[in-house]
Design goal:
Strand content of chain A: 15-25%
Number of strands of chain A: 30
Number of strands of chain B: 10
Distance between the termini of chain B: 29 Å
Strand content of chain B: 25-35%
Helix content of chain A: 25-40%
Oligomer: heterodimer
Helix content of chain B: under 10%
Number of helices of chain A: 26
Shape of chain A: globular
Distance between the termini of chain A: 27 Å
Strand order of the largest sheet of chain B: 1-10-9-4-3-2
Order of helices and strands of chain B: HEEEEEEEEEE
Chain lengths: ~850, ~170
């Protein structure tokens, strides 16, 4: 079959003198360490330890440094020479200890090659003229700079909109966020900004931040120490794989007891327990049961969106038994926040009433709620358990973001599970992180720019960077529509050709008549890029030095080991090109003050960009530049703060890096293992506070769909599938597993499948008031009847097309997880599905 | 996992023995994949996996008879298939879930479908499970392993190379 590698396979061995680099996984938040070997094509190392770069005897099976066919590639650098590269998991990295996920382990297939699946990388600037035409950097930047200057001086900063990534890992990193943030927030000063996955630039768990609890507050080691791990709205086996496998699972298996004793001497130790709150029976649930035993894993299949009811009921049980942490509440919680919280959790109502209501509304049996409260808070031998609270998109993108997050973080506050080993309340995370930007010039909750654009309002120019708006925004078919409709007049203006002057003049005319000038900056020709008028080809991880932090704030430098394709440039360099040109244009027009805002882009290297951002951060903490370290620094609560760091120092810390934020003590830089160890929280009082939350009703847009359509369409990430699939589908072994053609599949309950006459592999149509999409059926009993699960963000079967425009008005975070639609079978399985396995995905025992 | 008594070269043992025991078994520089008898098709029962080793003694393999025929299935009913037993994630020996006909890795729970060419159903491996090609002789009812599709875990080639690298 085609999915196999061609026979015979022979992977060359890196010779002893192979170049070596450190990198991290490009994809998820966990940030596993990888090691890169690069050596000339045609050369291969030998079997003896002295003849290969691993220093091991390769006459035996290579159990520790195996190069799978998906970890190897051949790259051609700009010097015209070809090299072997092998990207293998790093066994010296404390994050993954040599483990790889299916995502990171297939990075070899993701590197740019001039032929094959990655050959369509954007490698040249493109300018519209009867289609995309290659242009020089000079011309492409000139057009964008002139339109920007014209709008800025005539209409003001808000005529220029942006949607850009705000994260680390591939397509991000501190150099990315700082350079793009400096451009749009400091130089342009637009409020018309949103980030890659939401109609706001503010964070996803704002309720937690308002409680003084920034969401990246734990160390991965905490999952080895916790007595109970709570996973709310997340599937870490799939989506935070090696945090789960390398830190949570050993605890569930009881192999971290020594570490527990070390941190809690005198406390009875036992294997960890896990509570999973998820409507689906994910492979996290079944594998945790395999690891811990079914009696140490509690799976609460909450009714979608009824999270606050459930969390408040758990809190009610805790206070019934007096298991709350009185000392913590007395010493670390704002006293006036206590009574409103007690009111909202029903402290003054009977326990039975609260539990009956929760069982009815949240669909979780009373016994499970009682057990959850016990595992979270009931003392064991006189000691309160160390409970680690985690959450991700099932919580963040639930019915109403602010209240759902608040009700969950309240449990951590109630039980005092913050700032100690084995505790914390943190996002599991999606991408890696790496946020350093000047302050956003607008106000909370931000601006729903895409909705303004869809209504024919908002900015006249829209620049998207490192994101794909059409596949990752609520009701996102409306984005394709406004890009097509409002972009058409600009295309006409550019079709007419002529000098740059003439073209810019016609573009501006078109913008004044309701047109939208679209600039796309990315690595692949996505559906969004296809609609841009000017396209800037970006470099990505492997092609430029970059820094990111993982979910425990571990800062590492990922080294460049190959050249970007063609003329592609790192994002920071593109921003600098544009800024310098805009500055010159403004100066020439006599706008000196505006021109000065575009100064400060004379970076030569990514290290310069990083240092620029680090200095800006450090100014607020000490008032001194980074290199001359002060004797001490002011503390910060920003978990992504990069003060007192630079590339050389970070690289010197190797693949295990250093956990930010950095504090300078006696002239030395010290990392932060976990937040709040000093008992201080990020509110002016230095204390945390409960935020009382009531169960929110279904938003009106969603309620209207529910009244008309039968199925709740839950949607999200899954295992090999990384975000919009931009690289996933270019990896043959993964593409083959899902039929070869990019598209979403829908896990559909067996009873629903029966009533719809559907078999696995069949083509389905999902339809509601917003859109119709097609996808592939995967019949399963891991989802409840009436509540199928759709892979999100794909190019075909784009889940967000049928997601309503509904957002939480307090945070602008959408209710992505809840929309309703009809499902029908439109065709039997295509022949490509004959190669696809539709076996159950949660079976992990023999 | 129920493995028959044939499994003298059972997974753990094979790994432990790696290094010395079987080096001689590897035909250095062999142009053709070795042929190795796996057993008589008639002795294969649905749900009862059989362990063997291929292409050399350090490569534990597992053959199973499925409930339904598959395109590359061997034997009179085209329902016998064989795979490397080493999970292509970290090299742990996979077990067999006979009810669902799934190979399951007990270390990190990657799963593979023997009815779909060893396709990874879910998990962390970066290739499908290498499938061992079986030839069938109807006269003798003998199954013979004749080649491997996909790279066996821990190797740079399924054949030892001229420089001695496995």
């Amino acid at each position: 079959m085609a999915s196999k590698q061609p026979d015979p396979i022979s992977i060359p061995v890196p010779p002893a003198d192979a170049q070596q680099f450190q990198t991290g996984c490009k994809y998820c938040i966990v940030g596993c360490g990888y090691k890169v070997y690069k050596w000339p094509l045609g050369k291969s190392g030998g079997a003896s330890p002295k003849q290969n770069a691993f220093g091991i005897d390769l006459r035996n099976p290579n159990l520790t440094h195996w190069i799978s066919p998906s970890m190897h590639s051949i790259v051609e650098d700009r010097d015209g020479r070809s090299y072997n590269v092998a990207i293998i998991p790093d066994d010296t990295c404390v994050v993954n200890s040599g483990l790889n996920s299916v995502r990171g382990g297939t990075m070899g297939l993701s590197v740019y090659r001039s032929h094959g699946p990655t050959a369509d990388r954007l490698n040249h600037p493109l300018v519209w003229a009867h289609g995309h035409q290659e242009a020089s950097w000079e011309d492409a930047v000139e057009i964008v700079a002139r339109v920007t200057k014209e709008l800025l001086t005539r209409d003001g900063p808000d005529a220029i909109g942006v949607k850009f990534a705000d994260h680390g890992g591939q397509g991000g990193g501190y150099e990315f966020t700082w350079s793009t943030g400096k451009f749009f927030y400091h130089s342009v000063r637009t409020t018309m900004a949103t980030v890659h996955n939401r109609p706001t630039v503010f964070g996803e768990p704002m309720a937690s931040r308002d409680m003084g609890i920034p969401e990246l507050n734990i160390a991965y080691e905490d999952a080895e120490i916790a007595d109970t791990i709570v996973i709310f709205g997340a599937d870490p086996y799939s989506d935070q794989t090696n945090y789960y496998l390398n830190h949570m699972v050993p605890n569930l298996q009881g192999s971290t007891e020594n570490k527990k004793k070390q941190h809690y001497p005198g406390k009875a130790v036992a294997p960890g327990r896990m509570i999973v709150v998820d409507p689906r029976r994910t492979v996290t649930v079944t594998s945790a049961r395999a690891a811990a035993g079914a009696d140490r894993v509690l799976h609460m299949q909450v009714n979608p969106g009824m999270d606050v009811t459930l969390m408040n009921a758990i809190a009610r049980v805790i206070v019934e038994h007096g298991w709350e942490n009185e000392a913590f509440i007395r010493d670390h919680v704002e006293a006036e926040s206590v009574a409103p919280y007690e009111e909202v959790i029903g402290k003054h109502r009977s326990l039975e009433d609260v539990l009956s209501e929760a069982e009815r509304d949240a669909g979780v049996p009373k016994a499970e709620i009682l057990k959850a409260a016990e595992w979270i808070a009931k003392p064991i031998g006189g000691h309160a358990p160390a409970t680690l609270f985690h959450y991700e998109k099932g919580a963040i993108w639930s019915i109403k973001n602010y209240q759902v997050i608040a009700s969950y973080v309240d449990l951590a506050v109630l039980t005092g599970n913050l700032g100690k080993p084995g505790t914390g309340c943190a996002r599991l995370g999606g991408h890696q992180e790496g946020y350093a930007r000047p302050p956003y010039p607008g106000k909370r909750p931000g601006v729903y720019v895409e909705q303004l654009l869809a209504e024919g309002k908002g900015p006249k120019m829209w620049w998207f960077i490192g994101c794909n708006p059409i596949q990752t925004a609520p009701n996102s078919s409306s984005i394709a529509k406004f890009m097509d409709e409002r972009g058409a007049s600009v295309k006409q203006a550019m079709d007419a050709g002529g000098s740059i002057d003439e073209r810019v003049k016609r573009i501006i005319d078109a913008l004044d008549r309701g047109g939208l000038f679209i600039v796309g900056q990315d690595i692949y020709p996505t559906e969004s890029v296809k609609r841009a008028h000017v396209v800037f080809p970006a470099a990505t991880q492997f092609e430029v030095d970059m820094t990111s932090i993982n979910g425990e704030r571990r800062m590492r430098l990922y080294q460049k080991f190959m050249d970007p394709p063609g003329a592609a440039k790192p994002d920071w360099e593109i921003m600098a090109l544009a800024a310098r040109r805009i500055q010159a244009l403004l100066e020439a027009d006599g706008h000196k003050e505006l021109a000065d805002r575009f100064a400060g882009y004379d970076w030569k290297t990514p290290a310069d960009v990083f240092l620029d951002g680090a200095r800006a951060s450090a100014a607020g903490r000490q008032g001194e530049p980074v290199e001359g370290l002060p004797q001490s620094s002011k503390p910060t609560f920003d978990p992504e703060d990069i003060s007192f760091l630079d590339h050389a120092f970070i690289l010197s810390k190797g693949i295990n890096g250093i956990q930010v934020p950095i504090n300078v003590v006696n002239g030395e830089r010290r990392g932060t293992v976990r937040l709040f160890e000093d008992g201080k929280f990020a509110r002016p009082s230095g204390r945390t506070a409960f935020i009382p939350a009531k169960q929110p009703p279904l938003p009106p847009d969603v309620a209207r769909q529910r009244a008309k359509y039968k199925y709740l369409i839950n949607n999200g990430r899954f295992d090999a599938m990384w975000q919009t699939g931009y690289e996933t589908w270019r990896k043959p072994v993964i593409a083959q597993r899902w039929g070869g053609t990019p598209g979403a599949f829908l896990e559909l309950n067996v009873h629903d499948a029966k009533s719809l006459g559907v078999s696995s592999g069949d083509v389905l149509r999902i339809h509601n008031d917003y859109a119709s999409i097609t996808c592939t059926a995967y019949v399963s009993d891991t989802v409840k009847p009436g509540a199928p699960f759709l892979l999100f963000a794909q190019v075909r079967g784009t889940a967000d097309f049928v997601v309503t425009p509904s957002i939480d008005p307090e945070t602008n975070i959408p209710y992505y997880k809840g929309t309703y639609a009809s499902i029908e079978r439109v065709a039997p399985a295509p022949s490509s599905m004959k190669r696809v396995s539709f076996k159950p995905m949660d079976v992990v025992t023999t | 996992m129920p493995i028959s008594r044939r499994s003298l070269l059972g997974a753990g043992g094979a790994i432990a023995a790696a290094g010395i025991a079987a080096r001689a078994a590897a035909p250095a520089g062999a142009a053709e994949a070795p042929r190795k008898a796996v057993g008589k098709a008639g002795e294969f029962l649905v749900g009862k996996p059989v362990a063997f080793a291929y292409p050399d003694a350090r490569a534990p393999a597992i053959a199973v008879r499925l409930r339904e025929p598959v395109p590359y299935g061997a034997g009179p009913h085209h329902d016998i298939v064989a795979y490397s037993q080493l999970c292509v994630h970290k090299g742990c020996p996979v077990g067999y879930n006979a009810k669902d006909e799934i190979f399951v890795c007990p270390c990190h729970w990657s799963t593979y479908d023997p009815a779909k060419d060893g396709q990874m159903i879910i998990g962390h491996a970066t290739t499908d499970l290498p499938r061992i090609e079986l030839a069938y002789d109807a006269k003798t009812d003998e199954l013979t392993a004749v080649g491997v599709h996909g790279l066996i875990y821990g190797r740079s080639s399924n054949e030892p190379r001229k420089d001695g690298v496995l």
